[in-house]
Design brief:
Elements: H1 4-21, H2 47-69, H3 74-95, H4 102-123
Helix pairs in contact: 2-3, 2-4, 3-4
Length: 129
């Protein structure tokens, strides 16, 4: 009655057209950027993780400034920048699920406080050169 090959081709065409008709999956962001007003924000960061990210950026700038004026040696700078890399890794791990919990923020803040003290200690260690 019907040609088997014709039925197979028609079935494949139907399956293909159905797949394209579904479109793409859109996952709305968990944090609405509009409700924070004029604040400058980085795309993809929640408000809390944006603060931690900005603080890490400021710490990296302090390291580079200390390296430029000679108060931080290249070896110390490498150690401090590795510390910043570890903080970024913890931030990435914490934000993988899209929500930054209070415990995760506390852990990141603790690591940033330690890094801040390390930068101060390396900057003001009273070397004569």
């Amino acid at each position: 009655m019907f040609n088997r090959q014709l039925l197979v081709i028609a079935g494949m065409a139907l399956a293909t057209s159905t797949a394209f008709a579904q479109g793409t999956y859109y996952d709305p962001p968990r944090y609405d950027d509009q409700r924070y007003g004029d604040q400058q924000r980085h795309e993809g960061y929640s408000r809390a993780s944006w603060r931690e990210r900005q603080r890490a950026d400021e710490q990296e700038q302090r390291i580079r400034d200390g390296q430029a004026n000679g108060s931080i040696t290249p070896r110390e700078a490498a150690w401090l920048l590795d510390q910043q890399r570890q903080i970024r890794h913890v931030e990435w791990q914490a934000s993988r699920d899209g929500v930054l919990t209070r415990d995760e923020r506390q852990q990141i803040r603790y690591l940033q406080d330690r890094a801040d003290r390390s930068i101060d200690r390396m900057t003001y260690n009273r070397r004569g050169y």
